[in-house]
Design goal:
about 350 residues; five-stranded mixed β-sheet; binds 6N-dimethyladenosine; single chain
Length: about 350
């Protein structure tokens, strides 16, 4: 049952089941994968999933923004988070729903009758992860689902919106519907850039949503991919963060905050004021010994989750970043994009 008061945080994207295994460079090479990347699967990648299964793969609930939603809920009071996306009518879809429920995340999935639940092959080599996604049902999300009266009333009740940039490949009209609701009522809207291929190959879609963003989040590689695809002529993360923060904006009541994470290097944040000034802040990450790392799949999603939890709980920018970094450090000590259970207190 949906909460009649609604959920303060609404997240939208692609619900996926991760098929995660440790492998070697030869497997990456066989499928033309980079050690650290996220791509959409093509025909030539379809054999990867069975090969991962043979390598004793683990099935782990994934989907970037779904990980973020579970992460935010980890740090928030009950009934704080709603997640929306499209699954198939199958066992994998049920596993995802159950995992969200156990994490306290309310789901409103569109259930597609024809396609199976999407999956992501996560090939772990050392501290790198290569993600290869077959969206299947996740690609069937529709604006009509969001506009159903019982769902739209939850959209209206939400106070914060987070959209995973991977959804730019799926349903831009749904993203824009949330973005416009946020801007019209001066509610914060946050978007992740998700992967280098988004600014590279979904540039137009990305640029149609960016004016609505109050927060952007990406890692250094995605930041540089954005800069390159817009011929900004710089690879400097601080410079790119500033330029992202100062891009044109629909809601002029808030300046944009652009966040760039850099693995173990400090997180760079550009804070733009409504008058067009921009201030840079850097935050060293929580130190973790190399051998405490299980795998880094989902680190960025966890950061976004912790950060959003801070925003929803009305914490300062500094505290919200700290919550993001804390949750990212917790997540990389778990298998896949997961969080410690029983719950640890921040
Ligand atoms: C459209 N694509 C490529 C994707 C994804 C994705 N989530 C949504 N859409 N490709 C990988 N992921 C998820 O990223 C998480 C790690 O950050 C994986 O499912 C994984 O859980």
């Amino acid at each position: 049952m949906a909460s009649p008061q609604g959920y303060p945080l609404l997240c939208l994207e692609n619900p996926l089941l991760d098929i995660q295994a440790h492998a070697d460079a030869a497997l990456l090479e066989k499928y033309g994968l980079k050690a650290n990347d996220a791509i959409l699967a093509e025909e030539k990648h379809m054999g990867l999933y069975d090969e991962l299964m043979k390598l004793d793969a683990k099935l782990i609930p994934g989907g970037a923004a779904q990980n973020t939603a579970r992460g935010a809920q980890y740090l928030l009071p009950d009934n704080s988070t709603l997640y929306i996306g499209c699954v198939g009518k199958d066992k994998h879809g049920e596993i995802l729903k159950k995992t969200c429920e156990e994490a306290g995340v309310h789901t409103e999935y569109r259930v597609d009758e024809t396609q199976p639940t999407g999956k992501c092959g996560a090939v772990i080599t050392g501290h790198n992860r290569s993600l290869c996604t077959h969206l299947a049902a996740a690609n069937e999300y529709k604006l009509e689902h969001l506009k159903q009266p019982e769902i739209w009333s939850l959209v209206e009740k939400a106070q914060f919106y987070f959209v995973g940039g991977f959804h730019l490949t799926v349903c831009v009209p749904a993203i824009l519907a949330l973005a416009e609701e946020a801007a019209a009522k001066n509610k914060p809207f946050m978007l992740s850039l998700s992967a280098p291929f988004i600014p590279q190959f979904f540039k137009e879609q990305l640029d149609s949503v960016l004016p609505f963003t109050d927060y952007t989040v990406c890692n250094e590689t995605e930041a540089r991919a954005y800069s390159e695809s817009h011929q900004w002529g710089t690879e400097d993360v601080v410079e790119i963060a500033k330029k992202l923060a100062l891009l044109p904006k629909k809601n002029t009541q808030r300046g944009r905050i652009s966040i760039v994470t850099q693995g173990t290097d400090p997180t760079v944040i550009a804070v733009a004021s409504t008058s067009g000034d921009v201030e840079i802040k850097t935050f060293p990450v929580h130190e973790l010994s190399k051998d405490a790392i299980n795998d880094t799949n989902g680190a960025g999603d966890a950061f976004a989750g912790g950060f959003l939890a801070g925003l929803v709980a009305s914490k300062s920018l500094e505290d919200s970043v700290d919550m993001g970094q804390w949750l990212a450090a917790k997540s990389i000590q778990e298998l896949g994009p997961s969080y410690p259970y029983p719950k640890q207190a921040y």
